[in-house]
Amino acid sequence: MKPDTRPAESRPFYLSPGPKGMVTENAKKQPLPPDPLRCRFCMTPTLLALLAASTMILTTSCKKAAPAALPPPIVQVLEVTATNVPMSTEFIGQLDSPQNVEVRARVEAFVSEFLFIEGTNVVKGAPLFRLDKQPFEQRLAAANGMLAEAEAALNKYRADTNRLTPLAEKRAIPLQDLDNAVASVAVGEANVLSAKARVLSAKIDLGYCDVDAPLDGMIGAKQVSVGSLVGKGEPTLLATISQLDPIWFYCNIGEAQYLKAEAEARRSGRKVADLGIALILADGSVHPARGKFVFIDRAVDTKTGTLRVRAEFPNPDKNLRPGMFARIKVDTGTRPDSILVPERAVAELQGKNFAWVIGADNKATQRAVKVGETIGENLLIPEGLKAGERIVTEGLQKVREGAPVQPKTAAQMAEAAAAEAARQAEAQPAKEGETKPVKE
Q1: Cβ contacts of 63 within 8 Å, gap of 6 or more
Q2: Long-range Cβ contact pairs of 351-360 (< 8 A, separation 24 or more)
Q3: In this predicted model, what pLDDT tens digit does every residue of 24-71 receive, in sequence order?
Q4: Which pTM was predicted?
Q5: Nearest alpha-carbon partner for 258 in 269, 272, 276
Q6: Mean pLDDT calculated for residue range 422-435
Q7: Domains with residue ranges and CATH for the chain
Q8: pLDDT for the residue numbered 56
């Protein structure tokens, strides 16, 4: 065999075994001698490169394939439109009567009878209570007697004066006697006046025993019973009469609310006093007659920062009563080209409001919006949205900034749901018709 004349770096090599046939770290690459018996263990550099490449291919093929990307989430969208929105604001308050008159006893006496039905309408002058008159009739009789006595004394003084006047002119009596007689006449006249005043006072007290209705209205429950002593030390409350038609509504509105209502009224060319008012009762029903503002206080309460306002409503059926809690809805006009969106389309985060806007490329963008009044189930958006834009109304939790979505309208979502329900309905009979295998 001819010796290998190739350079050492291009010759095949083998690892020289160490002791006991093991390859040591100090083993050096030795040129392979031209022994045909060891050619089967020879590896050329080309063979080594092929082996490494095949190993990499096998290793790569053993890795798991990457999962397929999820489709964009389906969300319900709404196209924003501009419309003319009727503006209104609501205030909570309480009803009251223009006149709540307390009927009180003005003399000290016992109640002898009451002459009305509680909770009914009474007219002015109608008898309500009767008090015991006997003590006052006796006082009137005594006053009349004192008046008669004073008048009799006055007549005597006048007669004495008439007799003494001609005698004094003839100097038959001292002038002092005439002067005394004239003075007695003046004193007698004063006594008569006092007696007449006592008679008038006794008549007035006697008249107070007949307690009549001071005005037309509805009377409440009686506060005393027959036989009760009233008027001892202070006027005793007997009953209360309230005028019900018209009826007043009182409320306190904030300074900012008042200024906002003024601005809306000026925008529509009206005054606050001319705004239409609807009365909403506690059960949600609306009073058929509309009212108007009749009083706005001159100053804001510095303690509460509110302004006291009164509105008046017709109440011909008298079904509205003082003390009822109610709300008024003030019509402040119509705002043109306004944006309304459902409440669920607006999310609040750290005190700010946002809406998800879907662009032409079906990618979502979070946008800050300014929220105005609540109108039904919608929110007025003065700033942040424009007509023609699409916003997400359902599925806000699925949306991410800049991520694509599959926008569908409410009608499209309903059609898809109906189609799915029909498909399930068709599949259900097939499942019920399947027969179970019989065990042998």
Answers
A1: none
A2: 355/381, 355/384, 355/385, 355/391, 355/392, 356/75, 356/391, 356/392, 356/396, 356/399, 357/385, 357/389, 357/390, 357/391, 358/75, 358/77, 358/390, 358/391, 358/392, 358/405, 358/407
A3: 444 444 454 554 444 444 455 555 555 555 555 555 544 555 566 778
A4: 0.60
A5: 272
A6: 68
A7: 101-131+210-242 (2.40.50.100), 133-208 (1.10.287), 247-334 (2.40.30.170), 337-416 (2.40.420.20)
A8: 58
